[in-house]
Design a protein that fits this description.
493 residues, Serine Threonine Protein Phosphatase 5, Tetratricopeptide repeat, Apoptosis, Tumor Necrosis Factor Receptor Associated Protein 2, Chain A, six-stranded antiparallel beta sheet, elongated
Amino acid sequence: MDPGLSRGGGLPSFEFAFNSENFSDRVLRLEVVATDGVAGGPLPDVALHREDLRLHKEEADGQTIDSSWTMAATPVLRVKTIYISSVVLAANSPFFLKLFSNGMKESDQRHLTLQIADSGTDETVMMELLRFMYTGKLAATEPNLLLDILTAADKFEVLACMRRCSQLLTNLPMTRETALLYLDYPCSTSVAAEIQHLTDAAKEFLANKYKVFDKFPHELMDMPLAGIEAIFSSSDLQIPSEDAIYTFLLKWVCEQYLQTEDRHKIWSSRLLPLLRFNHMSWKQLHEVLTCSDDAIDNEETTKRITDALLHKAYPAHEQGALAVDTATCWQVPQRAYIQKPLKVVEFDRPRPQVIVYLDLTHEECSRLFPEGEFFSQLFHLAGHNFYIMPTCEMEDEQRKLYSFGLWLGIHDKPEGSTCLTFNFEFAARTKSSGEFVLKLKDEVIFTGDCMQGCGDLFGVPWSTFLADDSLFIDGLLHLRAALTLVEQPGVQT
């Protein structure tokens, strides 16, 4: 019979000899035992023994063969006998090579017994692995089964089978189910390294699928921990603000982990690193800091928020200000926030005042064209919430001229006839001086949903504004707004 050349690299196939008594010198007895009798995951720590021996960690040529040899006292549910060739198995597996050539008397024994768990797949996994060593082929196509075969191949050191499983898994279409399977699959270090490209692809798939945060609230709430980590590690997540991430993760951990100890452990070790506290609003940080919530580990949360508030208190924009240790600044990138993060400095005296800093990338400014706008996070003063809104506006409709605008708005309308009087300033930092240059200063009275500002902050057409390198320092446009309370009814300032 012509063995053919069906194996990779032109190697001959020995399929004709698989489970053939004529071409075999050994007998492998597969004993399927009760699942609770054998520990481990897919193809658990195999119990491989000779029928009349009790051996542990036999040594050959100075190397230890740890094959968990034992005569485990577990009920045997069924038995499958397979004829094997020691030459074929030894050629494909260093494990079997050591077993058949260690010089001990069991090397010459004809009968071997392998115990596997009655898990529903372990018998199939072992047969697939043995057949691969003869043929170089795998019939399996399901990702769960391929992962189990990969794990078994790792246990028996069949490297070619590990590579083939990895190749077949790579060619399968990625879905939510397979992505979560790859991320949460229990495996050894060597197997984890073999499928690292799959776990990376799974993280990327989930991050892209759930990029628009508000579209999948129910799916995300049912997402297991591995998926949550993959999604919320992404910088491309489109969300209103980092505050929304905090609120969601807090709700998620409370629903998923009912035991307080488990919830605290997951929150501190797995979820807190996903939060970018530096990009949370001052209002949210203060609320969390002053709220005692037994649902989470408040000690670790407080520490991280304190570090974030310290960083926000001394923005890098202020030349000569106290430097903050970069090790505690957590220079993590912003996500695709709908509300742009701010850095805020608050003063109580001589008058209540807030100074906020807003950075826009050149790309973000470009996206404003032809008539767009961004909203900043809310900031707080005199019992009200304010925001800053950069815009691109048509300055001259006839000549199609556009300009960069900056506006100050109040989020919550003052009740009744209440009027709030403020001084406000807009400034921008230029490369030539490194200082903020005042662009607009005014006194305003807020009586409702009104906005104050300027439709042409820099006094130049849009194209000139984008081309002015002196405005974009390291690719960023640095803006500063100062809002000072002048008069509030019933309040002495």
